[in-house]
Specification:
The structure is a single chain. The strands form three sheets. Strands 1, 2, 3, 4, 5, 6, 7 and 8 form an eight-stranded mixed beta sheet that branches. Strands 9, 10, 11, 13, 15, 16 and 17 form a seven-stranded mixed beta sheet that branches. Strands 12-14 form a two-stranded parallel sheet. It has helices spanning 3-28, 32-40, 46-53, 107-123, 145-160, 179-183, 201-208, 214-218, 220-227, 237-249, 259-263, 295-302, 349-364, 382-386, 389-402, 417-422, 446-463, 470-488, 490-495, 508-518; strands at residues 60-63, 79-86, 89-96, 127-133, 165-174, 186-190, 195-197, 232-234, 314-317, 325-332, 335-342, 346-347, 369-375, 377-378, 407-416, 432-435, 440-442. Strand 3, helix 4 (107-123) and strand 4 form a beta-alpha-beta unit. The chain is an alpha/beta fold.
């Protein structure tokens, strides 16, 4: 192993170790004492409930586990969201974490569930909500109350679209939270644990003077026998999960696209494992993102290997033109995909034109697109401006914006400037977007941004006839660089929900395989309608 490869691997393993520690914060929830207190009451934690809910031995793709990172709230935003298989059906699962302030929703909880609801809607996934929440975090209600109504709107719209919604209520579901079971198609409540009411006994006392207790006001048995809100009364948590699994089993749910339609044949097509060991992905990303790397190496470790039916691993498109962007066709877990991957960081006019054509071809063949980022943005300079870099970049962004096949995005390294837009960043609504621990994303690199500010400040001083204080500005420049560096890091971006999770590069093929399977729950077709392409 060369020194460079060894250094790359060591640096990536350090980043993965740090990532594991960040994820451990989310798993810890409200801490050991809070978890022990809930276990002592015979209650399960959210990930324990999910593990029992999904099919044995199946994967759970957790989404946005670092939501709220760097904020005043616990990492994870007091809710777990993700995709799991229940009775053979891919479902979007949300689970309140009662160990964090009783599962109360804070501003990041709302944003995280918004994203989960968007994924369910785009991909036609039934939703199973594991409910135990004391309602809104009252000190931050001003950031929750108005936008939070969208949560309930999304539940009813899913039902209207024929996408089932299921609520399993394990504890409190108070105030606005009462509408989660109230608006779901199916509601299961746990005897002597579930409590669902718009206002608890203290609020009722204050509002009406009425004396009441939890059970008569909102207990599971009352709702099963009297109000009719509960469709099923479970004896305990495990029984509620059993009933939830049986509800999903009876949905008669089928994917919109069968494996035969996906593969374009009436026969089931097998696939080969990648030519490269996924573990070797740790060797590929340079410690300095200014150093380019060949994305074909990444592709070889992500895509299906050679088989009797599949042929080549990667059929590259236009390999001799626009060489800073690699484009081509491949399969991942047997599913076809078109890939756009940055090769040398900077995007030139030729790369943008190639990308535009490639996106059109993918839409013509109804092929999902995978974007692999390592870009510093579009090339700048007099010659490039005169050569049309703006109109060619706009052409690429036009194609990406109007493409109607599903898009998946993985940010491997740099994702700066308009390159983030052209390569289908968060603002362009990819079905899923994940980052590696090596990723960085901002308007430009920290040193470049600080340098630009210095030039602007110097020009401003000169225009006023003042002497520019180079030494004095050095301290400001240092602070700006540090701030941009911190805000470019994957934890910060993931905490803001600008991605769906920071993942170990070795898990990328599995994650993409799950995502490609999920998008087949809804029909999709490419388009031939794009905005005006300026000649």
């Amino acid at each position: 192993m060369s020194d460079t490869i060894s250094d790359n691997r060591a640096a990536m393993l350090d980043k993965i170790s740090a990532l594991d520690m960040e994820h451990a914060q989310a798993v810890a929830g409200g801490g050991e004492r809070a978890v022990a207190r809930h276990h002592a009451r015979g209650k399960l934690m959210p990930r324990e409930r999910i593990e029992l809910l999904i099919d044995e031995g199946s994967a759970f793709l957790e989404l946005s586990p670092l939501a709220g990172w760097g904020s005043d709230f616990k990492v994870g935003a007091s809710v777990v969201t993700g995709i799991g298989v229940i009775e053979g059906v891919e479902c979007l699962i949300t689970a309140n974490d009662p160990s964090v302030k009783g599962g109360a929703s804070n501003p990041w909880t709302v944003k995280k569930i918004f994203r989960a609801s968007q994924i369910a809607e785009q991909n036609g996934l039934p939703t199973v909500s594991l409910v135990e929440s004391g309602g809104a975090d009252l000190p931050t209600q001003k950031e929750i109350f108005i936008p939070g109504g969208k949560l309930f709107r999304d539940i009813t719209r899913a039902s209207a679209a024929g996408t089932p919604t299921i609520a399993l209520v394990f504890g409190n579901s108070t105030a606005g939270g009462a509408y989660v079971p109230g608006m779901s198609d199916y509601t299961v409540m746990v005897r002597e644990q579930a409590k669902v009411f718009l206002g608890g006994p203290p609020l009722v006392k204050m509002a009406t003077g009425e004396e009441s207790d939890d059970e008569s006001l909102g207990g599971a048995e009352m709702h099963a026998r009297t109000s009719g809100l509960a469709d099923y009364l479970a004896e305990d948590e495990r029984d509620a999960i059993r009933i939830g699994r049986r509800i999903v089993a009876r949905l008669n749910w089928r994917k919109a696209r069968t494996s035969a339609e996906v593969r374009g044949t009436s026969l089931e097509v097998t696939y080969a494992e990648p030519a490269g060991d996924p573990d070797d992905l740790l060797d590929l990303i340079p410690t300095d993102l200014k150093v380019p790397f060949d994305p074909r190496e990444v592709i070889a470790h992500l895509c299906d290997g050679v088989s009797a039916t599949n042929g080549a691993v990667f059929d590259e498109f236009k390999p001799l033109y626009g060489t800073s962007l690699v484009t081509g066709w491949a399969r991942i877990h047997g599913r076809p995909v078109g890939i756009l991957a940055n090769a040398q960081g900077v995007l030139f006019s030729e790369d943008a034109q190639k990308a535009t054509q490639f996106v059109q071809l993918a839409n013509q063949t109804d092929t999902p697109l995978l974007f692999l980022h390592n870009t510093t943005g579009y090339m700048v300079g007099k010659d490039y401006e005169q050569g049309g870099i703006i109109k060619h970049g706009a052409m690429m962004i036009n194609a990406i914006s109007n493409s109607t096949v599903p898009h998946l995005t993985v940010i491997m390294g740099a994702s700066y400037g308009a390159g983030n837009y052209g390569m289908n960043g968060r603002a362009y609504d990819p079905r899923f977007l994940f980052t590696w621990p090596s990723a960085k994303s901002a308007v430009m690199g920290p040193a470049q941004l600080a340098g630009v500010l210095e030039i602007v400040a110097q020009q401003s001083a000169e225009s006023k006839g003042e002497v520019f204080d180079v030494e004095g500005f050095a301290a400001i420049k240092q602070v700006v660089e540090a701030q941009v560096e911190e805000q470019s890091l994957p934890y910060f971006l993931s905490g803001m929900l600008y991605d769906d999770g920071v993942i170990d590069p070795r898990d990328t093929r599995t994650v993409l395989g799950i995502c490609l399977s999920v998008i087949d729950n809804t029909p999709f077709r490419g388009t031939d309608r794009f905005g005006v392409f300026r000649p």
